[in-house]
Structure formats: structure tokens, C-alpha cells
Amino acid sequence: MMKDITIGQYFPGNSVIHRMDPRMKLVLTFLYIIVIFVCKNFYSLGAMVFALVLMVLFSQIPVKTILKSVKPIFIIIVFTAILNVLYTTNGTILFEWKFIHISTGGIYTAVFMVIRIISLVVASSLLTYTTSPTLITDAIERLLSPLKFMRNSVHTIAMMMTIALRFIPTLIEEFDKITSAQKARGADLETGTLVERAKALIPIFIPLFITSFRRAYELAYAMECRCYHGGEGRTRMKQMKLHGFDVVGLVFMVVVTAGVVSLNIVFPHLI
Amino acid sequence: MEEILKFDNVSFSYDEITEDTSRTEYAIRNVSLSIKTGEYVAVLGHNGSGKSTFAKLCNGILVPDEGQVLVNGLSTHNPSDDETENLEHIMKIRKDVGMVFQNPDNQIVATIVEEDVAFGPENLGVDPLEIRKRVDESLKAVGMYEYRGHEPHKLSGGQKQRVAIAGILAMQPRCLVLDESTAMLDPRGRREVMNTVRKLHDDLGMTVVFITHFMDEAVTADRVVVMDKGHVIMDGTPKEVFKNAERLREVGLDVPQATEFSIELSKIGLNVPTDTLNTDECVEALSALLEE
Amino acid sequence: MAILKTENLTYCYSTGTPFEVTALDNANIEIDDGELVAVIGHTGSGKSTLIQHFNGLLKPTSGKVLVDGKDIWESKASLREARFKVGLCFQYPEYQLFEETSYKDIAFGPKNMKLSEEEIDRRVRKAAEFVGVTDDMLERSPFDLSGGEKRRVAIAGVMAMEPKILILDEPTSGLDPKGRDKILGLIKEYRQETGSTVMIVSHSMEDVAKIATKVLVMNSSKVMSYDTVDETYKRADEIMQMGLDVPQITKIFMGLHEKGFPVRTNIYTVEQGIEEIKRIRGQVNGL
């Protein structure tokens, strides 16, 4: 069922990673993603994987939960692997049949790409697992706030993101409910041509839109009643402060980056 | 005692008011009423009686067309033409009169319980450490402290409403207005909210205005105000109000079954008081009758 | 013969994962034609899961659902048949309205049944008249109607499918006493007039006591009892322990009983209460 999906996937906890400054986490995750693309060989990639494993351990998020984040992109991973195996033809040929050539080079590249994608996904989900969506949007807002001329629009966008994240699960539930109700009135959503099926969605989407507008209206009232008046003069309960471990995190990331660059130079080949 | 909320001959219409007032459809008409600090007032009325408009007039979401609403002595009308001044004025009013609405889903803003409770004080520009303190205290007051890290959409209806109440408490209001906040809840959720509000009134001395169409929720109030067609038609203690069973039914309301039962028994000539409000009182009265 | 029957009906969410939850545990029910059944239970007791099996919106994890003696999951055709034989009206049905006019909205179900134009028109008008929706309201957008009117249009939308079994999930939620009494009255009348089987899901024993012939009590995913209103009220204390409310009048008589007065405890209307007090006084005076 659709409502089983968790959006934002925040996993409450009190680990060092949880307590790190969200801005630092955001910057480091960003840096990590860039560096993972800089890796040219298994040695530097190994260093990145090692760094990631270390961070996962520090976050105290169960490995099972971490692996779950990879599940949705399983198809993409398989697809990438197959493409790389088929299209890379250097190294020793291991298998040949008609137009299919499988070589050692192909397999190495495929493994390399798969590790790269998985690290990418795990690194970004580590961010969402350990940081609440509100804090992430807050962090974006604060990182961009030096851009004075757009401060107000940054606040508005961050607020919109928070509200969207808050309401996605509610709307999914609503969607399920309306679908069941219209099915009970004999609506046929499973058969027919593409056009017919698209048409069959009208009885679901119109009520969904109408409820959403009503919700938006009521939410706006509720926000006004709680004295919301834009970003001006607003304080935050959760202060973002750099701690010792934030600096450690930054130094760690810089060292890993330096390591990756030197490993790239020392070992010019993939393997 | 001090008046926290005062309606001074207030009228309000959702239509344009024309010269000929006899043709205007008023949602609220000539309502005068004052609520004192520390009171627990239930406002009863069927749908369309004007009770929701009444709620929205309390903190300046709507402003009266005629008369004025005073919150702590301040009129909810804009004081000047200056926008910043008006904003400060209305924030002062909304900080004092906190409002909880009907649909629990449509008043929670943040994705984590404690962040939502912090929303109000954040808007007021309260110091972060003070916000933290208020959030913890408010969540404890509504019994949701252990849920502070949870996602709101995974809570039950009653729990969501308690979070919404905590969000208002964190602004440290002087008066809590609940606009049909139990209408969408199951019996368990309704009990949760009722008990929470009761506790806030008894322990913290919070002024409560509870707008509802459930009689059993009005019974425990200090004072019951009944509205019909935009007018206040009754105003008194629950005992005084519920005695008028006939009149209440006329305006589309129930009376508590215990009251109805006593009234019916007295009609067939039995000697029972007609102002019993709850089960216990009724059992007492009947025991006395049967033991005679 | 039972019009609706379940055999060892069990339903689990998220089967095959560690998060498996049994929402319905081995339900065996037999409902006779023409009953007005109240299904009570608190949120999460499994009552919503149960009713969604009756028209095949949910597929049993194990066990069977028989409508008119036929297994609804036997074939595609039997499932389709069940969907039209069993009309299900969800909670807050007014939020499912979508057409430009109330007429078109009520016609949505009958249209899906592929009925003729005349038949659709007949059914729409009949259902609308029954719930008190005027011709003028039929031509208007359902979104211009009041809350209570919208709900009646939505209920008419299910009634117009003329199901043999009409199921309504919390049809009175969110309504004020007047609106509630109106809907309950309509449901009672509907059953008398059409002779169909009706089920209403409710939290409120007080509401169902007024109209039901049988009560189905659900608690922690199980069917606790299925019996007449009288018999069910004999176990009022058990029902209260499940976190459900019983009418005040019932509580009064339970209180009197506790004090040692020889009163019946399955009293659920004020009229019954008065009779019982008269009876007891007669006895006491007779002593």
C-alpha cells in the first residue's frame, strides 16, 4: 500500500551524526557526492566506501534500514551493471555469443559503477535519516541567507518545502481513501485503453484537489493564528552551532578527499 | 475578575452590508458577552448557528462589521493605516487568544512533533533556549512529551489535537479557544482532548472557550452559552441551561440523557430533580427515590 | 439463507515482512437478509477492514467471503457482481463528490453498472427524492450545497446503485444532533422501504441502539459478538472495557444495579428506563 512509504525517512536518534550541524552535514554530503565522481580507481573508491561505512557506524542507524534505501533504485543498479558489462570491451574476453561480449574490463567497470551509485544513495540517505526534513530545509535557508537580496524568497521556498514534506503522507492516504471509495461505486481503474484509464482518474483527482485546497486554506488560517508573518523577526528553537565534532567531520572529509586525489595519481588505472 | 474577552454588541455578515439592514443575512447579530480570566465556557449551537463565526471573531481572523471585540482591552480592529503597526497589534491579540481548529491534520505545520510546537514561539521571536523550555513544558502539559520526536501523521486524531494544543500553549496565551476541536475524533480521542483541556483549566488556570455541538462536552463547563441564528439565546450554568430541554431541542440540540430521563420521570409525577447533569447525580437521585 | 457470510476470514497487512499486522483475525459471521446491523468497535478494531472485504475492495489473506452464497473471489465476474450487490459508502462521503452537478454525481455509480439511460434517470431521481435532495439541488453543483446536503447527495450516490446490502461507514460523523438524527432516520426508512440489508459502522452505541436490529462488536481484530441489541446490552460492562461508550441511560441503570437495586442493566433508551423505574417502584411498593 502506498501509505507505507516514508517520505523524508527521518530516523530519530542521538548519535554524533544526528547532532552534527545540519549545515555541515549538507555541505559534507554535497562534497562526498562530488568526490565520489572524482574517484578513478578501486583504491580511491575503497577509501570512500571505508569513510562511508565509518559514518554509518557512527550514526547508529541499523544496516538493514540503510540497505532499504537502496531497494527503490535496485532496477537502476541492475540496468547500469548490464549496460556497463555489455558496452565495455577492454581486457580479456570471457564470453562471446553473437553480439554479446563479456570482458574482465566490463565486469570491473560494472562493479565500479554499482559501488559508486550505492555509495551515492547511502550517503544521501544518511543525511535524511539523521536530519529531520525541517532541519534540512532550515539548513538550506541558512546556507543561502548571506544572499541578502533573496533572503525572503529563500525563507518562503524553505517553508513551502517543509509544508510539502509534512503533507505528502496525508495526501497519499487521502488518495488511497478516495480511490477505494470510487472503486466501491464501480469505477474501473484497471482495464481499458490508456485514454480510458486516464479519464478514470478524474473522479479521484478532482476530490483530491478540492480537499487539498481546503486544507491549504485551513492551514493558512492556523498559521496566521500562530502569528506566522514570514521570515522577518523569526527565531528558531534548534540553533545551528558548529561543535567540535563538526570540525572533526570536516577535517575527516578533507583528509579523505586528499587521499582520493593522491590515490588517483598513484594508481592511474581502474584496477 | 478581569475580562479577557469582550464582545460589545457585535454583528457580522459574510455578505456586503447594504443600507437596508433588514435584508442582510447576519452570521452574528448583536452579540454582547464577556469572558473572564479563568472561566471555562462552552459555546453550543448546531451547524450554522454562528458559533464558528463567533470563534473566528475572537482573535481577529474576522473583524466585526458593527460593534467591537476586545481582547484584554484591545480592539481586534486595525488601529491605524500603518502595516507594521497593524501587524504588531494583531500578533499581540493572537498571542493572547490561541485557537485550536477542527481538523487535526490541517493545523500541524512541521514534520516533527516538537518542531511543530516550536512554530508559534518562533514566529513571536522568542529566544531559542526559552522556546526549548516552553516546548518541553507544553508537551508535558498535554501528555505528549514522549512523542516529541515522532512524525505527526503517524499519530492518532486525539494525539494530533493534543499536539496542536501544545503548539498554542507554547505561545503562552491567556485564553484557549477550541473551535469544534473534537468534532472529527472518535470517542477515545474526544475523551483525550476533553481531559487535557480540563487539566489545563484546573491545574494552570487557563481560560477556555470550548465550541462544540456535543452536549456531554458542555456539561463539565462552568458556563454554557447557547447560540442560534447568530444570537445568544441562553447563557448560564450547565444546570440552568439544560433544564430547558424543549427549547434546546427546538434549536437542534440534544440534552444529556441523564437530564432528559429526570425530566421525563418528573413528568409522570415522580419526585426527582430535573437538573441532573451526569450519570452519578442521576443514580443518586434515583436511589433516594427508590429507597423512599 | 444468509445474504452475507464469511468463513475464517483473515487479513494481514504487509505480509511476508517483519511488519506483518493481522487486521482481521478469523472472522466467521452470518448475516440474514433484511437485518439492520450495527458494527461497533473503536478505531483500529478491524471494523473498517472487515467491511472492505464485503464488496471485494480487500482480498482476504485467507478465508472466504460469500455474498448470496457465492464466493466473491471465485471469478472476475463474481467480484464485479459483488461490487454492485454490496454498496459501500465511506466515512465523510461528501469528500468524494466530483461531478459538475449533483445529478451527475449520483449517476456515477449506476453509469458504471452500464444501465440504460432511462434506468439511470429513474434510479437517480428515486434516490435523490428519498434522501430529500430537490430537483433544484440536483441541477446545482454539489459543492454549493451545505455540509449536510452534500452528505445526503453522496449517500444517494450509493443508494442509486440499489445494492442488496448497503454499508455505511460512520455516516453521522461530524454532524450536529439534528443532522445525525436526519441521517439515522433516513437509513431506518430506507431499510423499511426497500427491505434490503443495511450495515452501519459506528463508535456510538447510543446512535445504533435507536435503529439497529443486530449488533456486531469488533475488538482487537476479532469479532467479539453478533447478537440482538438487547443481548448485546446485557454485556455493557464488557463493551465499556473495550473503550467504547454506552449511552448514559445504560450507565445509570448499571449504577443502580451496583447499588443493589434489582434493575435490568440492558436499558438503552429513555423510554425503557421509565418503564423499568415504574416496574421497580411497583415491586418496592408491593413489598
Strands, helices and their partners?
The complex is a heterotrimer of chains A (271), B (292) and C (287).
Chain A (H helix, E strand, L loop, with lengths): L15 H4 L2 H17 L3 H18 L3 H6 L5 H14 L5 E5 L2 E4 H27 L2 H12 L6 H34 L9 H7 L1 H24 L18 H23 L5
Helix pairs in contact in A: 2-6, 2-11, 3-6, 3-11, 5-6, 7-8, 8-10
Chain B lengths: L2 E10 L15 E9 L3 E5 L6 H8 L7 E6 L2 E2 L7 H14 E4 L12 H11 L4 H14 L15 H13 L5 E5 L7 H18 L2 E6 L2 H4 L4 E6 L2 E6 L1 H5 L2 H6 L6 H11 L11 H13 L1
Helix pairs in contact in B: 3-4, 3-5, 4-5, 5-6
Chain C lengths: L1 E12 L7 E12 L3 E5 L6 H8 L7 E6 L2 E2 L4 H10 E4 L12 H11 L4 H15 L3 H5 L7 H13 L5 E5 L7 H18 L2 E6 L2 H7 L2 E6 L2 E7 H5 L2 H6 L6 H11 L11 H17 L1
Parallel strand pairs in C: 3-8, 3-9, 6-7, 7-8
Antiparallel strand pairs in C: 1-2, 1-4, 4-5, 9-10
Helix pairs in contact in C: 3-4, 3-6, 4-6
Notes on the protein architecture:
The complex is a heterotrimer of chains A (271), B (292) and C (287). Chain A is mainly α and 271 residues long. In chain A, strands 1-2 form a two-stranded antiparallel ribbon. Chain A has one domain. Chain A contains eleven helices and two strands; from the N terminus they run H-H-H-H-H-E-E-H-H-H-H-H-H. Chain B has 292 residues and is an alpha/beta fold. Chain B has helices at residues 51-58, 83-96, 113-123, 128-141, 157-169, 187-204, 215-218, 238-242, 245-250, 257-267, 279-291; strands spanning 3-12, 28-36, 40-44, 66-71, 74-75, 97-100, 175-179, 207-212, 223-228, 231-236. Chain B is globular. The N and C termini of chain B lie far apart (44 Å). The mean pLDDT of chain B is 91. The radius of gyration of chain C is 21 Å and the shape is globular. Chain C has twelve helices and ten strands. Chain C folds into two domains: 4-246, Rossmann fold, CATH 3.40.50; 247-287, no CATH class. The longest helix of chain C has 18 residues, at 177-194. The chains are: A mainly alpha (271), B alpha/beta (292), C alpha/beta (287). Chains in contact: A-B, A-C, B-C. Chain A binds chain B through residues 8, 10, 12, 132-134, 162-163, 165-166, 169-170, 173, 214-215, 218-219, 221-229, 233-239, and chain B through 59, 61, 87, 91, 94-95, 98-99, 101, 103, 105-112, 114-115, 118-128, 131-132, 135, 149-153, 167-168, 171.
